[in-house]
Amino acid sequence: MPDSDLSGRLLKLWNDRKDEARLRHEEAERIQKNVHITFSLSDAGSLKVALSELGNRQENKVLAFDESFSIGPIVQLDIAAGRRTRQHWMMERFSPCRMMNNQNREHQIENMIEEFAKIPADKTIHIWCANNAHDQTGLRLTMYLLRHHQQPIKLINFTEILHDSPVPPIAQAFVGRDMHREIVKNCHRSRTVTLQERQQYVSSWEKLSLENNTLRLWQDGEIKGCKCDELDGIIKSAVMELQAESDDEGFIKAGKVVSKMFESLEQVIDDSFIEYRIWILISNGVFTFRGLPGALHQFSIKRTTPGVN
């Protein structure tokens, strides 16, 4: 068989496969009635599982950010320059970001902006969140990016839905599986966000994105911008409280320190940020360490001379 004939058949086969994939994608888009937006891959995974268990996964598209919105710069995230500034800040401080930069690109802010722009006008949008700085910052960014969309937007806030619980959840991860599935089952009954509320979220984002803070906490029902060292005192306190669990030389596993912090700190913050602050305190002479940098389970810390701040 001549090479030209073989090339032609391979090209035709390739084009046929592309056409088939395009038709499948178009059919999937046609079936979908709703678009769901979450602020973590784990939340998206739980949502997809619940939708599958309820038998309506095909009717629902799930989009997910892979970001830590409670930390890092958020100025001008809607343009490339702002996203580069955030990316550089994260990569300089968190070594996993250097490796993860080329992974999960479809969940990065730039691609999510493109996905939002393509949401058809006949699809209802559902945004899933809880009362924590990460979700609430992501919510405000999302409302800003969707400001020109006219279709209904429904907001499903786990903290507010379960506000009568003994301990209302500060994140989706704290919601039991059965309760989570029940909330997903009834999400179509959620209240539609009014135009006034949408504008308030947009205005809140515009104000928030002008701040140069690189740490955000949820306090008194609001996002509070803080300096990077805001939690350093809590790290020191956690080390003091764990002295009884130290080894013969006074060292405590760094992972235990982070776990102790989160017992009392009702915030959603990536533990890599806490690790970063621990290394800053080590650099400043507050702690000394033993072991290998790179992961919390690989090193231990202890306070240096009591007089060191």
What does this entry look like structurally?
With 309 residues, the chain is of the alpha/beta class. It folds into two domains: 32-213, Rossmann fold, CATH 3.40.50; 227-303, Orthogonal Bundle (Arc Repressor Mutant, subunit A). Helices cover 47% and strands 14% of the residues. A four-stranded parallel sheet has the order 2-1-3-4, with helices on both faces. The longest helix is centred in the first third of the chain and has 29 residues, at 3-31. The mean pLDDT is 90.
Topology:
Layout: H1 3-31, E1 34-38, H2 41-53, E2 60-64, H3 80-93, H4 95-100, H5 109-117, E3 124-129, H6 133-145, E4 153-157, H7 158-161, H8 177-185, H9 195-208, E5 215-219, E6 222-226, H10 232-241, E7 252-253, H11 254-264, H12 271-283, E8 287-291, E9 299-303
Parallel strand pairs: 1-2, 1-3, 3-4
Antiparallel strand pairs: 5-6, 7-9, 8-9
Helix pairs in contact: 2-8, 6-9, 10-11
Number of strands: 9
- The stretches of 5 or more residues where confidence is low (pLDDT under 50) are none
> Which sequence of SSEs, written as H and E, runs from N to C?
HEHEHHHEHEHHHEEHEHHEE
The CATH architecture category of the largest domain equals 3-Layer(aba) Sandwich
| Percent helix range | 40-55%
Q: Mean pLDDT, nearest integer? A: 90
Structural features:
309 residues, alpha/beta, Rossmann fold, Arc Repressor Mutant, subunit A, 2 domains, 9 strands, 14% strand
What would you say about this model in short?
Helix content is 47%, strand content 14%. It contains 12 helices and 9 strands. Helix 2 packs across helix 8 (177-185).
